[in-house]
Model the fold of this input.
Amino acid sequence: MPNKLEELLHQGPIAINVGVADFAETLEIQGIQVVHVNWTPPAGGDPELMELLDQLL
Amino acid sequence: MVTGYVIRKNEYHDSVFLMRVAKRLSQQKGILQAAALMGTEKNKILLEEIEVRGPEISEATPSDLMVAVKAESQEALASVLEDLDRWLTIDLGSAPRHDIRTLDEAVAMQRHSNLAVISVPGSYAAREARKALEHGLNVFLFSDNVPVDSEISLKKYARERGLLVMGPDCGTAIIGGIGIGFANAVRRGPIGVIGASGTGIQEFTSLIHRAGSGISQAIGIGSRDLSDAVGGISFLTALDALDSDPQTEVITILSKPPGELALSNLIPRILKCQKPRVVCFLGLGQETLSADIRHGTARTLDDAAAMAIQKVTGHAPPHLDTHSSNWQKLAGREQVNKNPEQRYLRGIFAGGTFCFQAQQILQDAGIVVHSNAPLHGNPKLADPMRSEEHTLVDMGTDDFTVGKPHPMIDSRLRCDRILAEGQDPHVAILLLDFVLGFNASPDPAGELVPVIKEVKDAAKKKGGSLSVVASICGTEGDLQNFRQQVKVLEEAEVAVFPSSAQAAQFCALLTASLSEATRAK
Done:
């Protein structure tokens, strides 16, 4: 069973895009399956709250 | 002049989207300056610097959108800020079809994914990358400003699991023929490349394509991977992968000088490559390399492309001859009508690697240049905003781009700098680079041509002449079209060269001729 890196190089990307939406579009126009994450800063961008959430989850 | 702003609570947009919005707003009638930023502390300081202040700005959080405008009149200001929805929704045609909010949801939706492309702000990037690795995904990490400790920990975690982290600060990759980030349309072929710089990979892969060959894989590893701190963790994974990749016949390695310790640790592995290899460490003196690795090293990206092609085909592409009669003739033409005080070269670069490589080429020709990103042995500019004597400026550094669009996406920063250089009576030559491909400006040449014409005309009016020398990185398959971009520049009397190295070599020749002519007078 090939590992995920071999799979990526041999079959090409099947991607999840987190952040700049244009990068998802770049992949889509090349015929690549891509799921775009409509990302927002976790915990409203509060670093202390983010750390607390990470510990809880 | 009037200023105004709008804060929208809990409305997040990515940085590229916001740069486009700011650009469009600033192009409206009566608008002097526009900024569209998320409410981070850094961005609040930027607004303070352009004298836009208010209690709502102080209270904004990184999840809140801030749009600030300086305008000639209250009417112009209102025309933008009161109709903000329209400006923000023009681009939303490219909005996601599903409202997926987290990486976990995305993985659940597409379970056979093998890559996460991550471009969130640096302080959040390691968190998302770690989640992606935990899901068994390889990572292309475009974000910069990721702490080096996080980079090391991510890369070690990935390597232990047979996964690859490209980045952080990875601009370009071509995997299985698919361009990721800032990549050019190149054909598939036998040449694999591992690169620490995005524009280095773009130039190399474009040169390979234009020479008739093709790329198997182009793997970015990020600007810090070959530092002593990181020690080339992703480099090793990438090299192992290309060594066993059946599509790859030759492996090329491109980087600025690696850390000394990292290099000495990596050389034994490079020497064990199963396939022919080409190594190009820009800016690193050949004498610092041991004899066993020196064989097969290239001095420039052009040399690296030529050597890689030779290793595949057995034939070298036509050799570059800087003493050819064409170059001498062109240099002769460009020297005509210079005023006696016109003697300096100014390079205004969008691509950091092009700035670095040009410094190396000029240094090899005995020409000292100042830079905000100096090559070893060159003086650092006291103020990145002001050129001194011969100067090459990398306009993609934080000196220029904090809160502003990178010059590969939007040429406004370079337009202003070119106009400033044009005012200096000592400037004889402008050296420019143009980068095509996915996610780059849709018309980089067209954006700069009006200011190129303006500074050329201004020089003529002063009885002199300004030489403009340029290179274009890209292919005819890119959306911007290589040939069309060449045509637009040549019509503006720009001397266009097929590579950044050749443009720099020509500038070295022309600069030396101008100094000689000055001495003769």
